[in-house]
Automatic annotation (TrEMBL):
Residues 5-117 form the Cyclophilin TM1367-like domain. This is Cyclophilin TM1367-like domain-containing protein. It holds the Pfam family Cyclophil_like. It comes from the Archaea. InterPro entries: Cyclophilin-like_dom_sf, Cyclophilin_TM1367, TM1367-like.
Length: 121
């Protein structure tokens, strides 16, 4: 990846975090980046915030584990995921980036919160 693909993940009414997409699953990251802005309603599973997005992407380099700050795509649920704690994925995910700033905002997310993902220009 030549240029850094930075994204802004806004939790409506609560603030935003900044993420940077990486090359662990470059095709997945590029498809999502090319389709921004995307938005959804938050769901919570352990220490993970996720929501479905209108993109169908296959497994690329699936991983069974996650580290704090991982931004991922979960193919079975067509879901954009943010791992903000120590919990692990329900099943394999395609990791596409990391939250670089303000990861703690996801501890304040409640189910149903509107989340908007867009590019950082």
């Amino acid at each position: 990846m030549v240029e850094k693909m930075r994204i802004r993940i806004e939790v409506e009414g609560k603030g935003y975090a900044i993420g940077e997409l990486d090359d662990r699953n470059p095709k997945t990251a590029q498809i999502i980046y090319d389709n921004l802005p995307l938005e959804g309603r938050a769901l919570i599973w352990l220490e993970e915030v996720y929501f479905d997005i209108p993109l169908t992407i296959e497994y690329e380099n699936p991983s069974k584990t996650a580290t704090m700050g991982d931004i991922s795509y979960w193919p079975p649920g067509y879901a954009f995921c943010i791992f903000f704690g120590s919990s692990q994925p329900y099943s394999e995910v395609n990791h596409i980036g990391k939250v670089m700033e303000n990861l703690e905002i996801f501890r304040e997310v409640e189910e149903g919160d509107r989340i908007i993902i867009d590019r950082v220009e």
